[in-house]
Amino acid sequence: MSLAIMIQGTASDVGKSMLVAGLCRIFAQDGHRTAPFKSQNMALNSGITPDGKEMGRAQIFQAEAAGIAPDVRMNPVLLKPTSDRKAQVVLMGKVATNMDAVTYHNYKPQLKTQIREVYQSLASEHDVMVLEGAGSPAEINLRDRDIVNMGMAELAECPVILVADIDRGGVFAAIYGTIALLLEHEKWRVKGVIINKFRGDVALLYSGIEQIEALTGVPVLGVMPWLDVDLEDEDSVVLDRGKYDAVTPKELDVAVLQLPYMSNFTDFNALAAQPDVRLRYVSKPEELKNSDLVIVPGSKNTLGDLRWLRENGLEKALLAHHSRDGAVLGICGGYQMLGQHIYDEVESGLGEMPGIGLLNVVTRFANEKTTTRVAGNVQTHLLGIFSASSGAPLQGYEIHMGETTRGENTSAFATFTQCNMQPYHNVDGAISHDGRVLGTYLHGLFDSGEFTRSLLDGLRQRKGLNAWDGEAFDYQKHKDHQFSKLADAMREHIDISRIYQIMREHQEQAV
After folding, report:
1. What is the CATH classification number for the domain harbouring 335?
2. In 124-156, which positions are buried (b, 16+ CB within 10 angstroms) versus exposed (e)?
3. Catalytic residue check, 158
């Protein structure tokens, strides 16, 4: 029987995903085969496992922290919102259906047996399981059919640590109120509290910590300071809170259009980490001025987001940027928007719509979703700013419902020779005849260091700058260092030995 601990939060975006990743790294460093698990994830950031299954990005980067390959069993249920009321339901890595919130809430009890079996299967192969909740366990309107917070803790028979975010204020009220709203058998599972994102002198918290421990009977296991770690965020709420609002001048300015249904914004983490890039998420036409590259990202509602671009003037600003000899890159839904026309009777319900018209391609949506991990190379003899990337190796993943056809005067971007670890041959993407507009279905594009550096050096050359002469930037090495930095900070500020004790005591009680 594996050891297990579950991280739940007083609210969304309190740092659960990051702390789970840190615990995964710590337990792996200590020699334990460790795996993350989140029964139900609602996110537009997803990735593909080596065998072609779709799962939440948070569990993928937590698996990376544990030093193991992602496995769809780590996230058996993924909900991808397509509107304010509906979501695509992905079960064990494949699209099952689309449901509104009420229908899905009524459907959840049918998932319990499958979730339990999946969890037990994964746990049987690992020494330690680190589970993550969603939102808050105090959402009492959802309690009767919960499969991701206390309902999951009961299925896994594991103890819980509650995480509270002090940066947003009211941390002690959040801790007390959350525990007070739990049922007695749920309160029994809460074995500790972590206060997260603290800025200042921790001595100022001591009296409050003593009082909250006395009021709840639950010990505070640590106070995590606000950390400057560069790791993936699960929720796009971090963009609204200004994560990428730094005004430090850099030699290259890259603007990403912040679409309402933007998916996989984690595509741009590797780009933002480049030493000569200032990456900005923009939602106003005037913010495109002075950009060296404008990126149209993926979308879970391509036609809805395209209509939004038109209504708020960003399409016109993007065309003006292109007319000023500016470079444009579209990924997945963004690639589709840059084309001539989109026919969609599957995803948005909007039918069809003319595209932005910067690429001579046409997209038709299909009922079956493409979910693949691919590897290959950029085509040779490319034009314009992308010419420096000719032949560069690429790897990443595809998640899309559309099939896009290239027209005249439009070259393919890449040739893929491997798909889901099997030999393969297919061409992807499109480049405009002037060499200034690129579209591709490849997520994780910028994780390919040689391609990214050559593209950025092409942009530098257009500005009259020399190629970057600093040390080559290795994003995977950078990310691994960030995981270790997070783990070191958690060892310093959290009683990890007490967490081990909690897991072992609970295991003994379960036996």
Report:
1. 3.40.50.880
2. eebebbbbbbbbbbbeeebbeebbbbbbbbebb
3. no
